[in-house]
Write a structure and sequence with these properties.
The chain is α+β, with helices and mostly antiparallel strands. It has one domain: TT1751-like domain (TATA-Binding Protein, 2-Layer Sandwich). It is built from 5 helices and 5 strands, in the order E-H-E-H-E-H-E-E-H-H. The model has no long low-confidence stretch (mean pLDDT about 95).
Length: about 130
């Protein structure tokens, strides 16, 4: 499966706040908190689904994978989305292990799996 997605009883804004705290504990910084809804509305669309994209990065891990294969930079920073769908808040991300499969480099697969497990832990702790 390409993604990892869970539901939470928290509001979108509360889930984003708690998720950012959990990411910080794992040494992932939020490089960008992007309110996609506001941006699309600013550009004249009628998109009204609450949707936030967090771009997150752990500098040491980014250095490790980029040192092995520069193509991995195409997937960086990692993205985690928090959005509302039919009254339910969801948190999800593309799995790093699924993305790494595309570059066909077994030497960094283990790193991707470790990062994935840590990000999933942050998401699960948010729920």
């Amino acid at each position: 499966m390409f993604d990892y997605t869970v539901e939470t009883s928290k509001s979108k804004d509360e889930a984003v706040r708690v998720l950012e705290e959990n990411l910080k504990e794992q040494k992932f910084g939020v490089l960008w908190n992007f309110d996609l809804t506001a941006k699309l509305q600013e550009k004249g669309t009628d998109f009204d689904t609450p949707y936030t994209i967090l771009e997150v990065c752990n500098p040491q891990e980014a250095n490790r994978v980029l040192s092995e294969d520069l193509l991995v930079g195409y997937f960086l920073p990692c993205k985690i989305v928090v959005y509302e769908e039919k009254g339910t808040t969801k948190i999800g991300m593309p799995k790093p292990s699924a993305l790494i499969d595309m570059v066909q480099n077994d030497s960094i697969k283990e790193i991707a799996v470790d990062i994935e497990e840590r990000l999933i832990g942050c998401i699960d702790k948010t729920v």
